[in-house]
Amino acid sequence: MNQIVSRIKFLFIPFLPIAVLAISTYSFLFWLICVRLKILNLRDDIGSPMVLMLVFVLALLLPRFKRFSNTSPALMSSLFMAWGAMVAPCIPIQSYIKAVTAKLIVLDHVSQFNDYPPDYYYQLKNFYIDKQFTRFKTTVKVSGKRHDYLAINIFAVTPLFDNSGAAGIANTEKSGIAWLGAEYPAVIDNKSPQPEKDEQYRAAIEEGKLNLQNKNLYDFKYLVRLEPAESENYIAAVRSKDSLNDAQPVIFLPTDISLDDVRKDKLFSVFLAFGLGSLVFLIALIITPKK
């Protein structure tokens, strides 16, 4: 019992402020480099937090482990748990920082998009959606341990216009200011005979298109602008028609969740990741044998 108390006192408790310092340092650097200065555009980056957290572990935690009188090779291995607990929250922190620093830009018309610096969240007062100009991109990936299934994802993009008049002008294919994205996943049996598999594939495509036709695309609170790296399949759908110019398409995803709730959920993910990681590290300290 005394051994467990000593490990908690001399290893786990000091770990907490060190981890908070390390995660705070990473958060500030991410904000400075990716949000404020926009030098890099990182998305779900794991490499940079792994390196930075390793520096903190080696500089501040490793010496403490070495000085601990009961340190054993097995106990030293729990350092990996500490490192993982520090890395884990850095992924949700990236999206949280973007969400909490972004502004909700209100546009009277979608054509005003280029009048503002690019941001993440937009609210449209007046716009028109014409489903007849929807474009599609379909991806297929094998899934399952034994390649039992085919995962089908149908990416749909529908152009956004200021009004119905803008949608009805000549050369409508180039008239969309931005595009509203939607994704429809499906799974089919990869072990089926080829004719049956082809039929399942066609049925999945038709079902995705039918879902789009039946969906009320006007039912959202605001739009989330996707970065190019996040919207490759949507962009491929936009560029499926030769008449499109070379301009970078603007892809929005609709959401009916309030922005405050989005930020709260992302912050909760940060604390959850750190809490679970810290708990695993604490358990490793407790159950690791002395020798």
Secondary-structure blueprint:
Elements: H1 2-36, H2 47-67, H3 73-76, H4 79-87, H5 90-101, E1 104-109, E2 121-126, E3 128-129, E4 135-143, E5 149-161, H6 164-167, E6 178-189, H7 194-214, E7 222-225, H8 232-238, E8 251-255, H9 259-287
Parallel strand pairs: 1-2, 6-8
Antiparallel strand pairs: 2-7, 3-5, 4-5, 5-6, 7-8
Summarize the main sheet. 8 strands, mixed
- Helix and strand string, N-terminal first? HHHHHEEEEEHEHEHEH
How many helical stretches? Answer: 9
Question: Structural class, from secondary structure content?
Answer: alpha+beta
Helical coverage, percent range: 40-55%
Low-pLDDT runs of 5+ residues are: 170-174
Based on CA inertia axes, which overall geometry fits?
Answer: globular
Radius of gyration over C-alpha positions, nearest whole angstrom: 25 Å
Report the strand count: 8
Q: What is the strand content?
A: 15-25%
Short description:
By secondary structure, the protein is α+β, with helices and mostly antiparallel strands. It is 49% helix and 20% strand.
Structure description:
With 291 residues, this protein is α+β, with helices and mostly antiparallel strands. 49% of the residues lie in helices and 20% in strands. The protein contains nine helices and eight strands. It has helices at residues 2-36, 47-67, 73-76, 79-87, 90-101, 164-167, 194-214, 232-238, 259-287, and strands at residues 104-109, 121-126, 128-129, 135-143, 149-161, 178-189, 222-225, 251-255. Strands 1, 2, 3, 4, 5, 6, 7 and 8 form an eight-stranded mixed sheet that branches. β4 (135-143) and β5 (149-161) form a beta hairpin. The protein is globular. The model is unreliable at 170-174 (pLDDT under 50).
